[in-house]
Specification:
The chain is built from ten helices and 14 strands. The protein is globular and about 50 Å long. The longest helix has 18 residues. The termini are far apart. It is an alpha/beta fold. The chain has a single domain, classed as Metallo-beta-lactamase, Chain A (4-Layer Sandwich).
Length: 243
């Protein structure tokens, strides 16, 4: 499960917030990872939510308290409307129905403090950073497109869950899809466009670091991961700086 940090001018922007403690202790690493990169959760200014599933928004809170107290949470209005609709909860089959109960303790504190900002479909959110619809997996899932200097990178959200299977056959869906037909169509279109245009993409449900390209091989696709180099500089504590 990957989350991504974008440094854009004076803004520190997360794409998704991980699982928090909802899916066990082995996945609750985002705050520690941020600190290892030299940032504190309090420095995050904005969080772009691809969709409101617990593995993407569970990390917004711990113990009912905000992990990112100064952040504005952005999502498509369709996504917020769906997950706060009691009638939608009553109609939803499992496992989707059980996810509704996780919305209040995770997204709820941000809604209560006025820290959730919605947009409508394709929207320019920051200079060079926009949302595009990724509807299907959930009613308001969004992808995010970062462009600079003629280069483009797309943060896809849950376009894929089982890469070893779905690259070979994009028609295969997963029970977590709210609309599996739309999700499959979105995946096939996304794969085809990314392969044709050699677009750099980032995905949460992909082997670390989750960034790379999609290549077409006949009627199938293949994942070409971006080589990962750990070139991070050690974080120097304030006490050592003082010395």
């Amino acid at each position: 499960m990957n989350a991504f940090l974008i440094q854009l001018g004076d803004s520190l922007i997360l794409v998704d917030a991980g699982t928090g403690g909802l899916l066990g202790p082995k996945l609750f690493k985002l705050p520690e990872s941020l600190k290892g990169a030299g940032y504190a959760p309090e420095q995050i200014t904005d969080i772009l939510v691809t969709h409101v599933h617990p593995d993407h928004t569970g990390g917004l809170t711990v113990g009912g308290k905000k992990v990112f107290p100064n952040a504005i949470v952005h999502m498509d209005w369709r996504e917020l409307a769906y997950w706060t609709d009691k009638s939608a909860e009553e109609k939803a089959p499992e496992p989707t129905r059980s996810f509704f109960k996780m919305v209040e303790p995770t997204v709820g504190p941000y809604i209560a403090s006025g820290s959730v900002k919605t947009f409508d479909g394709e929207t320019l959110l920051f200079p060079g950073l926009r949302s595009i619809p990724g509807y299907g997996h959930t009613p308001g899932q969004s992808y995010y497109v970062l462009e600079s200097g003629g280069e483009k990178m797309i943060f896809w959200g849950d376009i894929i869950h089982v890469p070893d299977i779905q690259f070979y056959n994009p028609n295969i869906t997963i029970k977590f899809d709210v609309d599996s037909t739309a999700a499959a169509a979105r995946r096939k279109r996304g794969f085809a466009d990314a392969a044709k245009n050699r677009t750099l993409v980032a995905m949460p449900h992909m082997y670390f670091p989750g960034v790379g390209h999609v290549a077409r091989e006949g009627n199938h696709y293949r994942w070409l991961p971006l080589p990962y180099v750990n070139d991070a500089k050690p974080v120097v504590s304030e006490s050592k700086r003082a010395q």
